[in-house]
Amino acid sequence: MRHPLFFAIVYALVLIATARTYKSCDSPIYCEGPLLRTVQLSNIFTDSKTFVDRPTAKPVDEVLKAFQQLGITPSVTDIRMFVEENFLEPGMELSQVLIKSNKQPQILERVTDPAYSVWMSDLNQYWSNLTYTFNTTFLCDGCQTSILPTKRPFVVPGGRFREFYYWDSYFVIEGLLYSELNDVAKGMIENFLDFVETYGFLPNGARIYYLNRSQPPFLTRMIKRYLDFVDDEELFTRALPILDTEYEFWMKNTTVEIYDPENDEKHYLNRFNVEYPYPRPEAYYEDWHTAHVDKDMTDQERVDLYSDLATGAETGWDYSSRWLRNKNFNGSSQFELLKSLNTRAIVPVELNSLLYDMEVQLSQWNTGKKKAYYQRRAEQRLHSMDRLLWNDEYSSFYDFNLTSQCQQIEFTPANYFPFWLGAIPERIAKDNKKLLSVFSELEGILKLYPGILTTTLVETGLQWDLPNGWPPLQYVTLHALLNVHKRITENKYTQSLSAQVDSLKTVARDLATRYVESGFCGWWATGGNVPGYLSNRGHTTDTGHMFEKFNVTVIGRSGGGGEYRPQIGFGWTNSIAFWIFANFDDFRAPNCTLVI
Ligand SMILES: *[C@@H]1O[C@H](CO)[C@@H](O)[C@H](O)[C@H]1NC(C)=O
Ligand SMILES: *[C@@H]1O[C@H](CO)[C@@H](O)[C@H](O)[C@H]1NC(C)=O
Ligand SMILES: *[C@@H]1O[C@H](CO)[C@@H](O)[C@H](O)[C@H]1NC(C)=O
Ligand SMILES: *[C@@H]1O[C@H](CO)[C@@H](O)[C@H](O)[C@H]1NC(C)=O
Ligand SMILES: *[C@@H]1O[C@H](CO)[C@@H](O)[C@H](O)[C@H]1NC(C)=O
Ligand SMILES: *[C@@H]1O[C@H](CO)[C@@H](O)[C@H](O)[C@H]1NC(C)=O
Ligand SMILES: *[C@@H]1O[C@H](CO)[C@@H](O)[C@H](O)[C@H]1NC(C)=O
Ligand SMILES: *[C@@H]1O[C@H](CO)[C@@H](O)[C@H](O)[C@H]1NC(C)=O
């Protein structure tokens, strides 16, 4: 028997499916085609992204003509010369914006330790080093760049990232709000709203080559956070219908149906899903190489692998054991591991939590039929998450593997997203013992290393695995711990549980302490200076930067798998430090000489 709601859903999906077309990557230079393929496969840059970030020096038709003249099999020297003659340097589209920073935002009053105070004041100034606009007045008539134009300034993460990114920006905005740069935060949100209006969805980042995929859907939450700080009816009114569009994109492009034989019912959940049959333009050589290590791969297998690589980038976790079919991490090379990507077959806990949050928010923000629609969607999703992602034996949510039709019982902080975003069935939310057992593993895992919380428990050499710890996942875990603590307190508990309840707070404080120590010592080790407290490290000419990720086995060391970043950064790392100071008191700065 099909529930009448089933028909309502199908009807809604059909409506959506016929409503919208998406803009896609269509440049003859920066998107799939002979020019991109030839230049990128010549491997003349150590990082494929360098080429697609270079604006043309001549009108596009001249560039294409010059490319034709290279013939069918140009030498690497000819290709190098072609690029030098026809392209400018990467990053030229960026103009730094001088923002008027508030030197004494209220948040700094909460930083009582003198050394931390010097550090956080510095971070508060860093926004001006990361705030840019796209300025293409240097481009000749008919020339092209890969940027997606925006009307307002934005904050870039730092390093090789010469544009802004979708999910990074949620965290960046959080920090901007604590630094009282509300206008910059608002401008970033408006840029995103423009993007959804123009492209039909929110691309991964502000480049034409990111038009084939999105990133974890944080826009609704971003707006919610902004509205927590600023009363802005105008932005809210503009955003509402645009958020419907973004929601439709996710439902249309990423929904999967899963049959539940036990209950004889169908569930609709979401997974990341990019169908893209080529190497990613900005990682062309790397992806091509991954798909050609094994000479016996069929064309169809290669096409599938390219889609799973692009989908991996859409998850924000590029790359991780979470998405690998091959679990033999020890005996396999990186290529052999990546070759086994199965990203599209994994129904991730965080994506469904974020969509649940979107449904709840949109039902709260809308009225009438729409309110009821989103409310129903939220209820259905919660029910499906409960059936498919929740594991009562282990008291945890886990990703669902469509290939095996089973949960993947693996530790990752992504499993805590429901406790941050409230995607928990009432039955669990009322059960104190159950809630307490959610974090039973966490304390033990934190005992393994002195640094922040690891991404997974397996070492694969990939960025989103041990020993790397990522700032956003600390933020989510801390929120989850604090929310569960609050919930248990509201539920009221017996004396016999009080030690366990208190330990939630202790663990949260421990993790928060590790975070600020890691950030601070990493900053100091790269030249950050606290006169009279820690002497400057003589061998560096830098003035202190913040890492994108950390090596959890040591306090204050950068994680691996990225490249050296000479620039001040890193957007999300800085922001989460602000959030921590807003939520915890009385930290004491460590003596980094002793811990690093
Ligand atoms: C992604 O790429 C494919 C193949 O080029 C194209 O058909 C599709 O329209 C693209 N999608 C988007 C959203 O750009
Ligand atoms: C950051 O910006 C300030 C002010 O514009 C400048 O003095 C400083 O040199 C910049 N630092 C870096 C590392 O770019
Ligand atoms: C854009 O760049 C041009 C020079 O290329 C400069 O004259 C102009 O001031 C810049 N505009 C902005 C808004 O930064
Ligand atoms: C979304 O789905 C449409 C239709 O199937 C497809 O053309 C488009 O490429 C997809 N967009 C993205 C960003 O994957
Ligand atoms: C999913 O299930 C398949 C089949 O059991 C298994 O081989 C694979 O390792 C699992 N995980 C992923 C990410 O594919
Ligand atoms: C991986 O290899 C190392 C050394 O060869 C061994 O000590 C370890 O137990 C192996 N781990 C797994 C999970 O097989
Ligand atoms: C930090 O430790 C070093 C090495 O033991 C010591 O020389 C220095 O005085 C300590 N600094 C502070 C601020 O405690
Ligand atoms: C992390 O730090 C340890 C030292 O504790 C080091 O052996 C390891 O190579 C580092 N890993 C990465 C990926 O940087």
From TrEMBL:
The keyword Translocase does not apply. It holds the Pfam family Trehalase. It catalyses: alpha,alpha-trehalose + H2O = alpha-D-glucose + beta-D-glucose. The keyword Signal applies. Keywords: Glycosidase, Hydrolase, Signal. This is Trehalase. Its EC number is 3.2.1.28. PANTHER family: TREHALASE (PTHR23403). Belongs to the glycosyl hydrolase 37 family. One of its GO terms (molecular function) is alpha,alpha-trehalase activity. Residues 1-21 form the signal peptide. GO terms for biological process: trehalose catabolic process.
